[in-house]
């Protein structure tokens, strides 16, 4: 037991040092950009959507419609960003994972440490974002604050499988594919900006497969206080499955890569 | 005569040698063509998301001159302009910084008869060729979705290349001042707000006076205004001002870039 605690403490110490050196570089991408999106889409474009009176959003403002979606999408983007280059860097460029397993840490511990750091980044970003959303009036009800744990789960559901892929890559050109064919379509078509029922049928079904859609639905239902317990459990289970299976593959991939 | 001219004129007048650099980049990218091709999808995804999804929520738009157009037709030219900007900026900043600092590519090139101006023109030409491929495909998608309303749209491709020229020149000039990857945060800091607020998603008339003026002087707004006028057919003489603005920005950027490259690498 004390070994586990000691290993954990060392990891925290390591990641705290990393974050102390790099947090400034993440300010723009993690805090400013989501806010700008909120302003441009929620408030600017929102005035046209609300003025159009199409009623497609069930009587809430466009800002309140997209705020939970933007929160979940932000979590996804931060999580994927922290699970691509840093992971391959630990294996290939800076090779700090190798230094870690030269200590009592096992590859599994190294991967858990990496994922815990992703969780920390997602959480800090989303707390700030959620506060700003609340101040702008983007939460339909106070229940919207529960979007925070949902966003964290979305982040982890994306981070774990992306880490699993990253441990199996030889170079970084695979990351361009993950962003262009994974993150960006998910961001655009997971119901954050408009109901997915407006999409052509087959794209609609693709959207249901994406973990982000489940996160957006869940956090929007929470914010509007329209939660159906069974659906919510389904969303949660789906996200948890991505996280669980992804973590298993990530640990396996890293073990093979570091010890061979 | 040519040698004399190069000594007198501030900008050397030899354009030819940049082609070696274009050829080099072409050879390199032939090995990673998947990355090259995938670059086309990003703006198309944006167009589909906003054109199919958000458009249904927004309904029709009335332009300043009273023309009524669908929201997708309003947004599409702005996406075209933004993707020309993003592609050019990415090529001219990240790629060039990497080649300059890590691959030491230009040190190697300047050890040959190539001069800094050749490097600058070569890189910019490459960025423009690549951008023109993406823009052409984007315009074809716009045609397929019925978002092109006028024959003036034939000029949309040269327009996109001009936007690329402006941002590639400026981006390259700025890259020569960058110290580390951390400085690239500033690149995102300028392109992202432009993407979101340069009359891309809604008309510039939405903004109150001072902010509207601020939007109108950004280079991306010039590009959006140009492309939107061409694809919707609301053409007027003011487009020449937009085009001149972009041309001047690109030329100034390239001049600064080649001067700085010379200073940094030929000490």
Summarize the structure in words.
Chain A: Keywords: Antibiotic resistance, Cell membrane, Membrane, Transmembrane, Transmembrane helix, Transport. Chain A: It is found in: Cell membrane; Membrane. The complex is a heterodimer of chains A (260) and B (267). Chain A is an all-alpha fold and 260 residues long. In chain A, 78% of the residues lie in helices and 0% in strands. Chain A has eleven helices and no strands. The radius of gyration of chain A is 19 Å and the shape is elongated. The mean pLDDT of chain A is 89. Chain B is mainly α. Chain B has one domain. Chain B has twelve helices and two strands; from the N terminus they run ααααββαααααααα. Chain B has a two-stranded antiparallel sheet with strand order 1-2. In chain B, strand 1 and strand 2 form a beta hairpin. In chain B, helix 5 packs antiparallel against helix 7. The radius of gyration of chain B is 19 Å and the shape is globular. The chains are: A mainly alpha (260), B mainly alpha (267).
List the helices and strands and how they pair.
The complex is a heterodimer of chains A (260) and B (267).
Chain A: H1 2-22, H2 27-52, H3 62-83, H4 85-93, H5 96-101, H6 107-136, H7 147-166, H8 173-189, H9 201-209, H10 211-224, H11 229-258
Chain B: H1 2-8, H2 18-30, H3 33-38, H4 41-58, E1 60-62, E2 68-70, H5 71-101, H6 105-110, H7 116-144, H8 156-175, H9 185-197, H10 209-216, H11 219-232, H12 238-265
Antiparallel strand pairs in B: 1-2
């Amino acid at each position: 037991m004390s070994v586990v605690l000691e290993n954990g403490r060392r990891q925290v110490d390591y990641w705290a040092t990393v974050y102390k050196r790099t947090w400034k570089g993440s300010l723009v991408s993690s805090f400013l950009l989501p806010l700008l999106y909120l302003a441009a889409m929620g408030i600017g474009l929102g005035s046209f959507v609300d003025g159009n009176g199409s009623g497609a959003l069930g009587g809430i403002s466009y800002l309140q419609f997209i705020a939970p979606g933007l929160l979940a999408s932000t979590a996804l983007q931060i999580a994927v960003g922290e699970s691509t280059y840093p992971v391959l860097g630990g294996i290939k460029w800076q090779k700090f994972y190798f230094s870690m397993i030269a200590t009592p840490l096992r590859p599994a511990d190294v991967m858990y440490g990496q994922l815990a750091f992703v969780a920390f980044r997602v959480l800090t970003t989303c707390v700030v974002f959620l506060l700003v959303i609340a101040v702008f009036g983007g939460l339909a009800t106070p229940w919207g604050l529960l979007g925070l744990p949902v966003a964290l789960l979305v982040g982890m559901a994306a981070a774990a499988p992306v880490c699993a892929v990253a441990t199996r890559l030889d170079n970084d050109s695979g990351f361009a594919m993950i962003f262009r064919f994974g993150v960006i379509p998910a961001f655009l078509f997971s119901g954050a900006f408009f109901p997915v029922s407006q999409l052509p049928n087959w794209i609609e079904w693709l959207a249901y497969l994406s973990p982000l859609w489940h996160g957006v639905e869940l956090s929007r239902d929470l914010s509007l206080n329209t939660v159906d317990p069974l659906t919510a459990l389904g969303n949660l289970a789906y996200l948890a499955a991505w996280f669980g299976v992804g973590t298993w593959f990530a640990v396996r991939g890293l073990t093979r890569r570091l010890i061979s | 005569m040519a040698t004399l001219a190069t000594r007198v004129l501030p900008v050397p007048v030899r354009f030819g040698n940049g082609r070696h650099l274009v050829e080099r980049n072409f050879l390199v990218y032939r090995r990673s063509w998947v990355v090259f091709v995938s670059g086309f999808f990003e703006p198309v995804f944006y167009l589909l998301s906003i054109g199919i999804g958000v458009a249904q929520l927004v309904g029709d738009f009335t332009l300043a001159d009273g023309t009524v157009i669908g929201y997708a037709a309003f947004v599409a030219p702005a996406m075209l302009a933004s993707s020309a900007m993003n592609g050019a900026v990415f090529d001219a900043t990240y790629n060039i910084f990497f080649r300059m600092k890590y691959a030491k590519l230009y040190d190697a090139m300047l050890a040959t008869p190539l001069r800094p101006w050749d490097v600058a023109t070569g890189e910019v030409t490459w960025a423009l060729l690549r951008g023109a491929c993406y823009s052409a495909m984007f315009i074809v998608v716009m045609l397929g979705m019925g978002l092109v309303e006028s024959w003036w749209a034939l000029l949309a491709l040269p327009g996109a290349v001009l936007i690329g020229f402006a941002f590639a020149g400026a981006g390259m000039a700025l890259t020569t001042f960058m110290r580390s990857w951390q400085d690239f945060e500033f690149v995102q800091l300028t392109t992202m707000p432009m993407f979101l607020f340069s009359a891309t998603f809604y008309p510039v008339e939405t903004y109150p006076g001072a902010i509207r003026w601020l939007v109108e002087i950004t280079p991306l707004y010039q590009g959006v205004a140009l492309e939107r006028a061409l694809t919707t057919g609301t053409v007027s003489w003011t487009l020449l001002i937009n085009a001149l603005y972009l041309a001047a920005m690109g030329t100034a950027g390239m001049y600064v870039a080649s001067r700085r490259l010379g200073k940094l690498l030929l000490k």
